Task: inverse folding
């Protein structure tokens, strides 16, 4: 059986049938990889069916859009000794048609339909004979390279940087990758996608189906709130809305607000960044009224972001999702735990970047950042000569720092992953802010709701750090640096659509307006 490139793409992009847990996605990847390796074999090894460099050059000059891939196209065919890839002695091989079908259904991959020379491509694939064989061969290879670039890399590096996305992505040699795929090397593409991509792709298919089924109607916004025990026409509409996305188990058409609806409303609120009290107010209805088309676009935007992220090199890593205000801690078993976070205000946006956590610092000093010192602390000192004493601060050389203690802005512990943005995770004395549904209150650093739990997780391989020892260090008022035995990768990212380990699709508000910017680039 010939190796099927489309099967490889399907395997890589995982139309997952798991329950949504990310560790199960990884298990599915292993299963698919084994299947693909079993299928690997001769793609088209008919060496007597060949091209020449003049034909390739003329094709690229005629179809100028593919000039970008000139080097890739030539390198690909040179590596094959100019043998055709999509034809053998019997004609076009089956895999060519399957890949063609994959390309014209780009929307399944979260991509807008973008096929250069689409009419010519469709015509060439629909009717192949000796007169257009060379054209069809070169068009198929060129379309693959175009598709692979969109699929694997997304928008350009320059465009990504304009969105203040500071995580370097892997460089991809698409021609080399295509050659590896043709000889059955399925592992190459497995390393190009961040796990969240596969989960979002699954949800995209579900939302396309909802759209095909007619989507949902808008719900009238009423002045009063709606809650358990109420009756009314709006309740029927709310039930239909929640039934459409699978949160309300039965298509109940009664106008009574029962316990089952209350539970469904709470689940909706939890997954949409709202106060989860089961009471339907204006904010809840506004979220329900966002159209399925807009939600599909939101999923697509976040699949695009996944294309920029490298696949984690380690099963153990931390991920902070800024608009969701959440920290996820992963290990080889999947999600170890999740925690609420507070991130930067709109005027002090938390940066998007990747770092390596190297230290846990107990009872830390807070070294006041230069911009805060100039804009806030020094003017406060000018107004009040006792400001430093009252706020447990002191001069330390040319900087001002706050001494360790329960008053300290960093709380009892901070977690350091050196970076150029002066951002770290830390405890906070302002615990009440974690009860807010929108948590943009910091100057850019990331406050976490369960600092002790994170400290014990990171230091689990150092036996001396028992629960009692961590408590003592956090309250000692004596700063102590503890290096980790092995650095832990930290990703600070921006996903407004995110599938959690329970398989629930979470939508978050675009707190920094980054969806708006990206949408203008790829969807408008």
Result:
């Amino acid at each position: 059986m010939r190796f099927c490139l489309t099967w490889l793409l399907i395997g890589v992009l995982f139309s997952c049938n798991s329950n949504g847990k990310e560790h199960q996605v990884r298990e599915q990847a292993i299963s698919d990889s084994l299947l693909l390796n079993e299928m690997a074999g001769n793609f088209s090894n008919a060496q007597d069916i060949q091209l020449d460099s003049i034909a390739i050059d003329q094709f690229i000059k005629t179809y100028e859009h593919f000039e970008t891939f000139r080097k890739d196209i030539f390198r690909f065919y040179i590596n094959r000794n100019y043998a055709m890839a999509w034809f053998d002695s019997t004609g076009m091989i089956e895999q060519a048609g399957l890949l063609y079908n994959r390309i014209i259904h780009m929307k399944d991959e979260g991509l807008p339909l973008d096929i250069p020379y689409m009419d010519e491509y469709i015509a060439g694939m629909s009717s192949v004979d000796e007169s257009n064989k060379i054209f069809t061969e070169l068009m198929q290879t060129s379309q693959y390279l175009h598709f692979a670039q969109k699929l694997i890399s997304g928008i350009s590096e320059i465009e990504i940087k304009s969105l203040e996305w500071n995580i370097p992505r892997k460089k991809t040699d698409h021609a080399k990758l295509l050659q590896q795929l043709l000889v059955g090397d399925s592992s190459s593409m497995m390393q190009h996608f961040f796990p969240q991509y596969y989960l979002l792709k699954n949800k995209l298919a579900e939302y396309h189906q909802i759209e095909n089924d007619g989507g949902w109607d808008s719900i009238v916004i009423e002045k009063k709130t709606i809650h358990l025990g109420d009756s009314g026409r709006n309740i029927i509409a709310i039930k239909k809305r929640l039934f459409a996305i699978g949160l309300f188990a039965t298509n109940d058409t009664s106008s009574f607000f029962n316990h089952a609806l209350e539970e469904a409303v709470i689940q909706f609120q939890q997954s949409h960044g709202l106060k989860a009290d089961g009471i339907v107010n204006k904010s809840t209805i506004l979220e329900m009224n966002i159209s399925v088309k807009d939600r599909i676009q939101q999923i697509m935007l976040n699949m695009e972001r996944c294309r920029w992220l490298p696949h984690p090199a380690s099963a153990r890593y931390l991920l902070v999702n800024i608009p969701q205000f959440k920290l996820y801690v992963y290990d080889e078993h999947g999600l170890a735990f999740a925690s609420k976070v507070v991130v930067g205000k709109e005027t002090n946006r938390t940066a998007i970047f990747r770092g390596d956590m190297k230290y846990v610092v107990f009872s830390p000093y807070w070294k006041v950042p230069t911009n805060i010192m100039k804009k806030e602390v020094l003017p406060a000192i000018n107004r009040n000569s006792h400001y430093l004493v009252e706020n447990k601060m002191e001069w330390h050389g040319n900087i001002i720092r706050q001494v360790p203690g329960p008053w300290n802005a960093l709380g009892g512990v901070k977690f350091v992953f050196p970076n150029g943005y002066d951002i770290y995770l830390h405890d906070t004395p302002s615990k009440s802010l974690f009860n807010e549904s929108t948590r943009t209150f910091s100057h850019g650093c990331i406050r976490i709701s369960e600092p002790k739990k994170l400290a014990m997780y990171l230091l689990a391989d150092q036996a001396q750090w028992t629960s009692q020892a961590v408590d003592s260090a956090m309250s000692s008022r004596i700063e102590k640096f503890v290096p980790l035995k092995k650095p832990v990768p930290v990703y600070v990212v921006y996903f407004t659509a995110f599938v959690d380990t329970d398989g629930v699709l979470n939508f978050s508000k675009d707190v920094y307006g980054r969806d708006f910017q990206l949408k203008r680039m790829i969807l408008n």
